[in-house]
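Cross-posted from the bioinformatics board.
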Amino acid sequence: MRLFKLTMLLFVGLLLSAQQVWATQITVSKNGDITSVQAGIDQAQPGDTVFVKAGRYVEYNIQIDKRITLLGEDNAIIDGDEQGFVVVVKADSTVIKDIEVHNSKAGFMDDYAGIVVEEANNVHIENVKMVNNFFGIYLAKSEGTIVKGNHIIASRQRETNSGNGIHLWYTKDVEITNNYVSGHRDGLYFEFVEGAFIAGNESENNIRYGIHFMYSDNCRYERNTFRDNGGGVAVMYTSNVEIVNNHFADNWGSSAYGMLLKEINRSIVTGNTFTNNSVGLYMEASSRNKVKDNAFEQNGWAVKLMANSTNNTFTENNFIANSFEVSTNSRMNYSNNFDHNYWSQYEGYDLDRDGVGDVPHRPVRLFSILVEKQPQSLLLLRSLLIDLLDAAEKFMPVLTPETLIDSKPQMEPVL
Amino acid sequence: MVEEQKGLTNKKDTTMYLYKLLKIIAVIGLLLLVTACSQEPAEIHYGNDECAHCKMMITDAQFASQIVTDKGKVHKFDAIECMAIYYQMNQDELDGAKLYVSNYAKPGNWLNAKKTQFVKSEVVNSPMGESLIAFPSRKEAEKHISDRPGKLLKWAEVSQIEM
C-alpha cells in the first residue's frame, strides 16, 4: 500500500515537472488567431511564453497575473495610447524581454508607468525599449528584481509634471544594470531601497536628477554616467553607500551638483570623476566618509564642504583646474582630513624632491568665503584685488578655517 | 499757415500726451515700489530653484511651498514638510512671516498655510515622503480623501511634524 502511494506520488511529481518542461509558446500577431497581448496572457498557463510578433498593439492596463515570459520580436510595440498603465506585473518570476512599451498615461495624481511591478518578486525586465511613458519602470515592494539593458526615453516637453525613468520604492536586493535613461524627472529614483546594485547605467538630460537616492542603505553604485541633468545627482539620508568609478559631468546651474550628499554616513566615494559641474561634490551634515582616488576637473567648485560635516577623509584625489578647490561656510572645520591630494592651484615648492610639497596647501580661498556670503561678488573672480586678498590670507589666515589644510600636498597628479 | 498751426497743435498734443504717459508710468512705478515690499507669494522657477531646507531642486508645483518674511525675503521649498521643519528650526527669525502652500488640485494657486486644510495622504507621494498635500477648504479635502484615503490635518499639527 505504502509502495503504491509512493509510486503515485512519484508519478504525480513527474507529471508536474513535465508540465514545466512542456511550457508552450503562445504567439500574438496582428493577423493570427490571437491579436491582443492580454488575450495571449489570458490563454497562457503558468510557465508559458507569450511571443509577440512585430506590429503596434494598442492596449493598456495589461495584467500579468501568472508566471509567464513575455517576449517580442523586433518592432513589437505595446502602445498604451496614454490611457493608463501599459503593463502591470503582479506575478513572481515574470520575465519581460525584447519588446517595446510606449505611451503610458501622464498622471497628475497617479504614478502611471510603462511597466509597473507591485508586490511581485524575482521579476526580470531586460532589453525593453520604453518611449514616452510617464514613469518608465516602477517597482514597489518587490524583491530580487533585475532591470537590465533597457532603453528608457521620454521626449515630453520639459514640464515639471513628469515621472522617473526607473523608480524603486520599498524594494530589496535588486540589480539595475546597463540601462539608458533620458528625458524623465529623475533618471533613477530610489526610496527605501535595501541592497541595490546599480552599475553601468547612463542617465542624462533628465529634468531633475540623474540618480536620486533617499533612505536607501547598503547600496552600491559603480561605473554609471550621470551627465547634463538639471540638478546633477542627489544622495540623501543614507548610510553605507559605495559610490565607485562613476562619472558626474556637465551639470550646470544654480542648483546643480555633480553629486549632492546630505546626511550620508560611513560611505565610500572612490575612483569617480567630477568634470564640468557648477559644484563637483557638495557635502552637508555628512560624517565618516572616505573620499579617495577621485578626479575633480574643471568645476566651478570642486568640493563644497559644509561645517556640519565631520570626520571625512579626502585623500589622494586630483584637483585640477577648478575655479574654487574647496569652499566652506564657516571657520570651523571638524576633523576633516585633506592630506595627500594633488592641487593644481598649489604654489609651493619641493626642495627635498620627495614628491611632497614643503609648504602646506590651503585649498579654501578667502574669496570663496566672500562668495558664500555675497554671491554677486563672483564678478570679481579674476580681479587683481582678489588675488592680493587671497595671497595675504595665505600668509596669515584670519577668516579661512585654519585646520582645513593639506599638509602633504603632492607635486604630481596622483592618478 | 494753417498747416503750421496744425503742426503746432499736434506738437502740443503729443507733449500733453507724453506728460500723461509719464504720470501714468510714475504712478505705476510707485505702486510697484509699494507692492515690492508686500508679502505676496513669489514666483517659483521650477527646475531651477532649490529647496531652502533639503537643497533639492523644486520641480513639482503640487507640493511647492514658500515663506515670505516681513522684509520680503522669500524661502522656497519643494514640499510642505520641508517648510514645516524649516519653520520649526528658524522660528525666531520668521516672526511676521507669511507661509504659502500650493493648492494640490490647482498647482500654482497659493494658499495661506495657516488657514489651509491639509491631508496626509496614504497614496500620494510627496517629494520628501511625508505625503502632505493642501486644499483650500475642508470640503475639497474630504472630496479628495473619499477616493484616495488620507487623514485631515490642520496647520497646528503639520507645523509640529518630525522627519
